[in-house]
Amino acid sequence: MAEEHRLAQVFVELADTLVAEFDVMEFLQVLVERCVELLHVDAAGLLLADHRGTLQAMTSSIESVRSLELFELQHDEGPCLDCFATGQPITNVDLSQSAERWPVFAPAALESGFRMCHAIPMRLRQQVIGALNLFHTRVEPFSEDDIAIGQAMADIATIGLLNERAVRERDVLATQLEGALDSRVIIEQAKGVIAERAGISVLEAFTLMRMHARSSNRPLSGVALAVVNGTLEASSIRRT
Amino acid sequence: MTSPRATQILSDVIDGAPDGAELPQRLVVACALGVPVTWAGLALVTEHGPGAMLAATDGPAAVLDELQFTLGEGPCIDSYATGRPVLHPDLKRSGPGRWPGFAMGALQAGVQAAFAFPLRVGAIKFGTLDLYRDEVGALSDDSLREALFFADAATQLLLHLHAEHPPDALDPGWLSKGANRSEVHQATGMISVQAGVGLREALLLLRARAFAAERSVAAVARDVVERVLRFDSDIGHAPGSPQGGAAW
């Protein structure tokens, strides 16, 4: 109970920092420190992809983690890089058993005093924008709950970054918003095209279009544009 | 699309315009003053993409837009392609890497910042509103907002000018009344299928019908969506149309 209470407190604290005046580095620093506390790990760190898709070590609870992350980047191997590449969490890595998988990283991590680690992806829809790294000095596997909390913390970090980006780059926000507004109109136009071709209501047309987008794993706005451009036949939407 | 501010801009452009005055020209002049920017131009889309100057203030705007058509690169071209604003507050820094030819020409002409806004209704693209400044710097929040309103007003004006038989008197209130309602866009899609025309023609048909019937575009659109009114290409097939008979 006390633990759940603390978890709620931390989430409120992090949410508060997202409002108004906020510094992204400060936010990420608080976040990794709270990870250490909530997940009973001994150290935490965060890697982020820059605009070219290159990973950068952003912040860590202790310097040894930052060194390890830099080490990982330099040698192009490690759980964090694998997590970033696949977008999947890599949990409960027993470092003494990992020399085969990561021949350079595993011995270096052991040398730094760590015995177990986890890497949790920071995802933004299809894109992986970074990873959260968690280290233990003893072998203490995560429970399912721990992994869920770790993912929640990684998700909060992602939201915080978006916020920062929006504040700093108003022009980016403006163009994205304009694009989103325009997409809405295209979706309405596509609803009309499908409704007329299929002889159904615009509401039914919308449902069909969403189902098609989901089953074909395409964004709704992309499907709508294909419908109005005639590159996607309304009849193929009807079939799905 | 139909904000009071955009309607106001249209009114200012139309009201007091001498007979035969070039409305697009009045709009770009008002835009350059209102945003404000040093130069402004209005580029039209041809079937091959952006490719015709409709109006420009004095100065290099016209030449710069023409340069973009010729080179096939520049903020106007990108804005057309993406359907989004393209904002380059420091052309010397961000331009050469992106558009080597255009940036060189623009910088030589004294342009330091370039901003292009798409003129479109969803998938229907009409052109771009191209703004240039002779000094480095982002548009302020107010200026950006004002530029977007001018782009909305320009879109409405182009829609009007595209009409085959444009009404003699241009009523800004009618032009923009409910023009961005969902039903209008849905009806546009439906009419394009019914009449076998593109979305642009479909929207023009819808507007012409509304104007002729002295009704709002939104009201006529609702009839289309509710299948009370059809726009078949076969004259005489308009079942249930309150006006009866042919749809156009």
Characterization of this structure:
The complex is a heterodimer of chains A (240) and B (248). Helices cover 60% and strands 15% of the residues of chain A. Chain A has 240 residues and is of the alpha+beta class. In chain A, helix 7 crosses helix 8, helix 7 crosses helix 9 and helix 8 packs across helix 9. The mean pLDDT of chain A is 82. A five-stranded antiparallel beta sheet of chain A has the order 2-1-5-4-3, with helices on both faces. The radius of gyration of chain A is 22 Å and the shape is elongated. Chain B is α+β, with helices and mostly antiparallel strands and 248 residues long. Chain B contains eleven helices and five strands, in the order ααββααβααββααααα. The longest helix of chain B has 22 residues. Chain B is globular, with a radius of gyration of 19 Å. The C terminus of chain B is likely disordered. The chains are: A alpha+beta (240), B alpha+beta (248). Chains A and B meet through helix 7 and helix 9 of A and strand 4, helix 7 and helix 9 of B.
Briefly say what this structure is.
The complex is a heterodimer of chains A (240) and B (248). Chain A is built from 10 helices and 5 strands; from the N terminus they run H-H-E-E-H-H-E-H-E-E-H-H-H-H-H.
Order of helices and strands of chain A: HHEEHHEHEEHHHHH
The averaged pLDDT of chain A comes out at 82
How far the N terminus sits from the C terminus of chain B, by CA atoms, comes to: 26 Å
Q: Structural class of the helices, strands and pairings of chain B? A: alpha+beta
* Separate helix tally of chain A: 10
Summarize the main sheet of chain A. Answer: 5 strands, antiparallel
Helix share, percent of chain B: 40-55%
Uncertain residue ranges of chain A = none
Largest sheet of chain B: 5 strands, antiparallel
The rounded distance between the terminal residues' Cα atoms of chain A is: 47 Å
Strand order across the largest sheet of chain B: 2-1-5-4-3
Q: What gross morphology of chain B would you assign? A: globular
